[in-house]
Amino acid sequence: MAVRLVFLGKLADLAGVGEREVSAPLDWAGLLAALPGPLGEAARQDRTRIAVNGALLADKTTLQAGEGDEVALLPPVSGG
Question: What's the pTM?
């Protein structure tokens, strides 16, 4: 089984898809390796947040996801 990556907002535009599956288990280094070019750069930004199964991570570098987990990448929120 795999980990499902979900891209929201401008990150979906960069990915070209809303979702992608990657091999489990997945940690921060594995996530970065799975996200090429501008998408990986966007994930590294301090304002990009990561949630695992709906729970926001306080420190995205602690990412640990296993089979069947969903990892959502959330772009910085803008608005007024």
Answer: 0.93
